[in-house]
Design brief:
Length: 183
Amino acid sequence: MPLIPSYLEFEGAISLPNTLPTKASGELLGLLLTSCTDEILTDVLGYELYQLLVTNEAQGSGIYHDLIAGVEFTDSLGRLNKWMGFTRGYNPIANYTYFRYIQQTSTVTTGLGEKGTNSENMIAASAVTKANRAWNKMADWLTVLHDYLIINKSDYPTYIGINYSPYDKGNANSKYFQKLTFL
């Protein structure tokens, strides 16, 4: 299972039309998928754990496979919970990429500043609500991931969240765990 999501993940609540790799918007999405994967996983996991994850991505079982494919665990409240992994439909990387894609494509930069598009027979609408939902879902999934990594810190001693809580503002990983109410 590849760590970097594909354009096929952008369906349902995070649907992105016309993003086949052969289209211009698909090229942008492909670039964002790579950069967003590096960015979010480095910030959330820490560089060292992210590199270990990439190195062991093809592992068919074990601790790195569990991070990618998902795993059930007893959470910090003593409940059975499940980290869904970086899997289709539950992938925080895809939601983060969706958020960034919407940010980059909602306006067009011109010599006269930022401009919106004007299509015939359409009314203007804001992508803020959908982008916020995608971000907040990502934050929920990353909260479960953090709990899993803390519970299993003996398996993941290089996890940055052990020493730098993602819930303390100012830490490199904190922005991904904060819920949004606006864009």
